[in-house]
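Hi X.,

You mentioned you wanted examples for the new student's onboarding notes, showing what a folding record looks like when two proteins sit in one file. Here is a clean example. The first protein comes first, with its sequence line followed by its structure tokens.
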Amino acid sequence: MVKDEQEQEFNIYKINTKEKYNKNKILVVLLMILSLILVLLILINVKRIIDNYKVYKEYEAQIITLKQAEEKKKEEQEKIRQAKLPKLTDEGKQNVENIYHSDTKRAFLTFDDGPSLVTSKILDILKQENVKATFFVLGSNVKKKPELVKRMYDEGHFIANHGYSHVYSQIYSSPQAVLDEYNSCNEEIKKAIGESEYNSHLFRFPGGLAGGPYAELKKQANDLLMQNDILHVDWNALNGDAETNDLSVDFEIQRLNETTENKNSVVILMHDAPSKSITADALPQIITTLRNQGYEFKNFYEIIK
């Protein structure tokens, strides 16, 4: 009896030990599963972090590329802006002094007294012919038609200075009055083109520098202008549109041929005032005539550097 009871107790112990072993085994398996899940979660999280980092680096690289492209664009725009701002150098002064001398044939088309409605037609023709010109504008007209001056500037023409009023008694009352006229005109140009640093450094005296009742005062004014880094230029050829009110295309071509004959470098005086519509009509033939004679068109961006 006692033996049976002992065996029964032993058997119970054996069962409990086996059950405990199975529980431990299950616990180990569960721990292993949990560990694997944890490792898997860690790996997934690490991969997510790595992927996010790659995306971030790609985004960062794109931002850097965009910034570099933007900076390059700004640099290029600034170069273009600076190239359109005349800068008077010693080379430029020498170029103006020698404007009528050249080993090759070159023609500077210059227009005085604008802008006006005639200017718009002239700009259309110049654009069609791919020719750059120089406009000696009046400040009073710039104030009236700033959009035409902006168009001149945007299309690569050189905007020079012809004073503000074109009233001789006012302009030539003193050398300082000439400088004041230049400065007043330049202020209107700056406002029209939206460029506060613009200064053409180039003036054409109304009526020209030489001769006339104000000849002595003009000489004094020219000295004052030069002291302020402002050069003057007249002309050595013309189309005759200031010589008569009975203008015609044939007359302008005739005067052009007469005044350009045997000259390599010609600065041609023309006008784009409201009464000079014939000049606009003659311009295509003027350009063709000069091309046929072997002239290459220039403007003062190539002179004042």
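Then the second protein repeats the pattern, sequence line and then tokens:
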Amino acid sequence: MGAPVAHRPLPVPEPELTPEAMIERARALRGRLREEQDATERRGHYSQETHKEFVHAGFYRTLQPRRFGGYEFDVRTFYRLAIELARGDPSAAWCLILGAGHALMLASYFDEPAQAAGFGPDGEFCAASVAAPTGTAKSDGSEWIVSGTWAYASGAPYSTFFIPSVLIEGEKTGRARMGLALIPRSQWKMLDDWGAVLGMRGSGSNTIVVEEARLPESHVIRLDMLNVDVSAGTPGGRLHGNPMYAGRCGSFFHGELVSLMVGLGYAAIDEYEQIIRTRKTLFPPIEPRYLNHDYQRTLGLALGLVHAAERLAVHAGELYLDYCQRGWEGGTPFSLEEDLALFASLEHGGRLVWEAVELLFRTASSSGARNGERMQRYYRDISMYRGHMSAQYETAAERLARVHLGLLGSFA
């Protein structure tokens, strides 16, 4: 398997970079991302040139530990970054954020040798991940052997590693069967099968195939992504001395998606405002649409809905850290019910954005539904989110209620 990776601290590219400066870099890219939307959709992911811009801006390192060359900014900052980038191009932002966000998972749940291998000698890291365990891991006594096929691996085109859920062979039933594997790019294949979908065509959500990847023992851990027991702390929390690396998965991951949808909502509002400022009403009194109370009402409703969703997302990032901090300081550990309640709140944030974009799309005029129009693209993109399994708030509501009523155990 080669020589072990040295566990020395890695230099941070820009030690003085602040969260606000990073957010401003994302805002500055908005125009370019919008100009490239068509090309990004056709390609299935953003360009190599844009990837280099993201690397230079430090976006991939937002949540990465400073010990391994990252900026170790907080979850709130990461959600704000998602909002700003998605305002430029929702699907490109989806590709980046879901790839970069899994730095938190690596830094939280894997031991130091796996983290050192994953973040590598230069700190360049991006990893697709899939929660559904559509592959297996088995131990031969010295190594893990992982095989499987995982669809919808968002961020795959620029991923240096893949971190899928797996079923561990040899275990019988229950949570013990669930695991996570850390697989280097050299041991997986990305299929050229993304793009023939309704929306999010530029999200790089390709299928990944793994055929008997051989991994060291540290690269597979027993863990259920949807219900992580943090009552005894986490390897990353102890290693980095930061409670951010001692949290659960579910609410964090959906916070990513809802933040992306908030940015999409603002992008649709920008497009709607451009439409009503440049077009006139069809019937007397003929006037610019932005002076007409019907269009004003629609814009105001959408603004209120998306602002509310933004507040939910950003506050969720703050609450997530509060729960981590409380457990870190010896208080009540971050519980499954808290994770589910935060997840459910975020789902309603996504629903608010869906309602706003649907309202804007159906009142913007039929010309906005043409191929190549941004309003059509935003409607297609938000529809893909609405069909995502994580956006089905009725399902999450039932599980939350069962945990609240004591009908499911802490790790059901």
